[in-house]
């Protein structure tokens, strides 16, 4: 039996929250690999949110 669920929060909002959480955690850390990794994840989440917004925009044109 397949389980279905309704997504309550949009992907864009989830990604924005993830980016915010990563940045907040990074602020509490000293410079180093862990902090850099969190900042990288935050940038990736921002980029993914922008791509999702672009893909779902009504003005998106198919490639010619």
Structural description of this entry:
By secondary structure, the chain is an all-alpha fold. The protein is flat and about 45 Å long. It contains 2 helices and no strands. α1 runs antiparallel to α2 (33-55). It has one domain. It starts with 10 loop residues before the first helix and ends in a 9-residue tail after the last helix. The mean pLDDT is 87.
What is the element layout, followed by pairings?
Elements: H1 11-27, H2 33-55
The rounded Rg comes to 16 Å
Oligomer: single chain
Q: Number of DSSP strands?
A: 0
What is the SS-derived class?
mainly alpha
Q: Helical content, roughly?
A: 55-70%
Number of helices: 2
Number of individual domains: 1
Average pLDDT number: 87
Spans of at least 5 consecutive residues with low confidence: none
Amino-to-carboxy terminus distance: 41 Å
The helix/strand order is HH
Overall geometry comes to flat
Q: How would you characterize the largest beta sheet? A: none
Strand content: under 5%
Compose a concise summary of this entry.
With 64 residues, this protein is mostly helical. The chain is built from 2 helices and no strands.
Can you give keywords for this protein?
single chain, 64 residues, mainly alpha, 2 helices, 62% helix, 0% strand
């Amino acid at each position: 039996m397949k389980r279905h669920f309704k997504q309550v929060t949009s992907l864009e909002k989830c990604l924005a929250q993830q980016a915010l959480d990563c940045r907040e955690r990074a602020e509490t850390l000293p410079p180093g690999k862990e902090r850099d990794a969190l900042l990288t994840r935050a940038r990736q989440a921002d980029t993914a949110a922008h791509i999702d917004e672009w893909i779902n925009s009504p003005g998106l044109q198919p490639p010619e």
